[in-house]
Every structure is written in structure tokens, then in C-alpha cells.
């Protein structure tokens, strides 16, 4: 379902004369407010230890509860993507990471509370500090390191993460050389 189909009333004046304006927006016929359905920003951490093993998480909640994932989440208002990434890493792993390196992005459709949220997932390369203690918290039920050669992409529950990991595997030498 298109995200605009979920909104029947103008968020400014409450009018039901909130009609499709074009493929990306609705316009209120009463007050003139135009609402655009834009993608939300989300971050994904490609966290590697000194053995170049990837930190993988297990999702504690739906969507895709119990499947594998990578640490990350939505960028909050008034937060840069990098601030959101570092916050999510801290919330989900207790790690403090410095100097994340932006790599690439992937579009995603994330279902939350039965609502499809279009996101742009921003993938960052991060190094786990030597001797760091890691603890699964927040949206994560488990954390563990996996050598890239042993990754089973089909075990990851979100399509954008699977797509991103395929890209990482194709370019692993280039990306790992940045660490």
C-alpha cells in the first residue's frame, strides 16, 4: 500500500478534503497544506573487530524477530546520520565507536506497527575498539562476530541488509582496507 493511502485527514487543519496531489504528495483542498511522503533516514553499522569479523545481531522484536541483522536504526530529528549511528551502536551494543566511514546507501521498506515506512539505509564502516566489552541491549537479543566467508545472507531478515551485505561481500577487500 502506498504510504499516502494511510492518511485521510489534513495534519494541519483536520479536513477530510486531503487529496492526492501527485505520486509523492497529498494536498488539503481546505487550507492548501501539501504533505510529501519522503523516505526516513536509517543507519547500518558494519562493525569489524581486529580479525576482520563482522558483528552480527539477532532481532529481539518484529519486524523479522529472531532473524539476523546488523546494528543500526532510525536517525532521530535534530541528529546527523553519524550521531544517530553512534547512538544506535551505543544503545544496542554498549560500544563507543569513533570515526565511522560512510560507504553506501540502500532503499528499504520497513514495516512498523503495520505501517510501511520507506527508508534510506546508510551503511557505515566501523572498527570495534580493542578490548571493548559488548553487550546486547535495546532491540537486540544477541550479538556475535562472524567471519565474512561464513555469512549466510539468507539468515538476515531485512531485504536492505541482505542487499547491503551482498554489496559488501563483492567489495570486501576495498572496504576492509579502509579499517
Oligomer: single chain
Main sheet: strands, sense, barrel? 4 strands, mixed
Helix percentage: 10-25%
Query: In what range is the share of β-strand residues?
Result: 35-45%
- The residue ranges in which pLDDT falls below 50 over 5 or more consecutive positions are none
The CATH C-level name of the largest domain is Alpha Beta
- CATH topology of the largest domain, by name, is Nucleoside Triphosphate Pyrophosphohydrolase
Mean pLDDT: 94
Number of separate structural domains: 2
The rounded Rg comes to 19 Å
Task: Please state the overall shape, judged from the principal axes of the Cα atoms.
Answer: elongated
The secondary-structure class comes to alpha+beta
Beta-strand segment tally: 10
Q: How are the strands ordered across the major sheet?
A: 7-4-9-8
Find the CATH superfamily of the largest domain.
Nucleoside Triphosphate Pyrophosphohydrolase
Distance between the termini: 41 Å
Name given to the CATH architecture of the largest domain: Alpha-Beta Complex
> DSSP helix count?
3
Order of helices and strands: EEEEEEEHEEEHH
Protein architecture, described:
The chain is an alpha+beta fold and 179 residues long. Helix content is 17%, strand content 37%. The protein has two domains: 3-36, no CATH class; 40-176, Nucleoside Triphosphate Pyrophosphohydrolase (Alpha-Beta Complex), CATH 3.90.79. The chain contains three helices and ten strands; from the N terminus they run βββββββαβββαα. The protein has a four-stranded mixed β-sheet with strand order 7-4-9-8, sandwiched between helices. Strands 1-2-3 form a three-stranded antiparallel β-sheet, with no helix packed on it. The radius of gyration is 19 Å and the shape is elongated. The N and C termini lie far apart (41 Å).
